[in-house]
Each structure stands twice: as C-alpha cells, then as structure tokens.
C-alpha cells in the first residue's frame, strides 16, 4: 500500500470515528453521571472504535471493546514515546488549539513519517490504519496541555 492510499484511508477513518466520538461526548455531557465518567479521557474513543469494529467486522460487543481498547492503548503508548512526543509536541506548539481539535487528520503525514523512520511502530499498511487513526485522534483530544506536559 502506498503512502497516499494509506493516508487517504486514515483520513476517512478519522472522519468516521471522530463523528462517533462526538456522539458519545454529547451523550456524556447530557448525562447526570458525566462528572463520574471522566476517569478515562480516551473512553469515548474506545467506545466509538468498538462500534466501528463491530459494524465493519461483525464482532460482538465484548470482542470489539477488547480490540478497540488494545488499539487505543497501543496508539497512546506509541505517541508518548520520548522521541515521538518531542516531535509531536513541537508541531502541536506551532498550531492553534482550535485547529488541532477540529482537524486531527493534520497529523497523518507527520505520523506516517515517524512510522517510516522507526520512531513509532505503526505499519503503513492496512493493518496500521486503525492504529494511525486512533493516534491522530488521541493527539487532537489531548492537545499540548495534556500530551506535552513534562
């Protein structure tokens, strides 16, 4: 799979998954229990990814949640590696917070390059699409305030 096809697939997945996460975020804000649900800032990303996996791969809820959690935790691990985090934070600090939150796909080329150079372990092939998607959304959701704290 060439880089352009990979990046296009990731961007499409980011758009789809961002929409699902936004639905879960809105439901959580409207819930009486929202203040207690904030224990995991990636919970809604995991939930959205599980729904996507369930519908696309015909997985049951438990299996899709397990796989989604593994993907999101691996993505979080990869972007928090010191060498990756240094580069990601430099890019984040040069952007406005609004552009980061509104356009998580802007990280696809940077993360693709970090992958190709071995800084992060995300395959630039079909198996890496969901991992790259989750990585971009995590960066956008965390932003400079959470990701770049030393």
Textual characterization of the structure:
The protein is built from seven helices and no strands. The chain has 150 residues and is an all-alpha fold. It has one domain. Helix 3 packs across helix 7. The radius of gyration is 15 Å and the shape is globular. The relative contact order is 0.17. The mean pLDDT is 87.
Strand content: under 5%
How many domains make up the coordinates? 1
Class by alpha and beta content: mainly alpha
Order of helices and strands: HHHHHHH
Portion of residues in helices?
Answer: over 70%
pLDDT < 50 runs, ≥5 residues: none
Total helices: the number is: 7
How big is the Rg? 15 Å
- Termini separation comes to 36 Å
Shape type? globular
Mean pLDDT: 87
Number of strands: 0
Largest sheet: none
Summarize the structure.
The chain has 150 residues and is an all-alpha fold.
List the helices and strands and how they pair.
Blueprint: H1 3-30, H2 43-57, H3 61-79, H4 82-93, H5 97-102, H6 108-116, H7 129-147
What characteristics describe this protein?
single chain; 150 residues; mainly alpha; 0% strand
């Amino acid at each position: 799979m060439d880089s352009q096809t990979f990046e296009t697939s990731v961007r499409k997945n980011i758009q789809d998954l961002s929409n699902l996460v936004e639905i879960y975020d809105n439901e959580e804000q409207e819930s009486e229990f929202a203040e207690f649900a904030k224990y995991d800032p990636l919970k809604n990303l995991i939930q959205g990814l599980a729904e996507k996996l369930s519908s696309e791969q015909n997985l049951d809820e438990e299996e899709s949640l397990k796989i989604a959690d593994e993907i999101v935790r691996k993505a979080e691990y990869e972007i928090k590696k010191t060498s990756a985090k240094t580069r990601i934070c430099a890019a984040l600090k040069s952007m406005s917070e609004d552009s980061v939150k509104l356009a998580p796909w802007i990280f696809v080329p940077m993360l693709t390059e970090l992958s190709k150079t071995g800084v992060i372990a995300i395959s630039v092939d079909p198996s890496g699409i969901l991992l790259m998607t989750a990585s971009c959304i995590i960066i956008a959701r965390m932003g400079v305030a959470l990701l770049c704290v030393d």
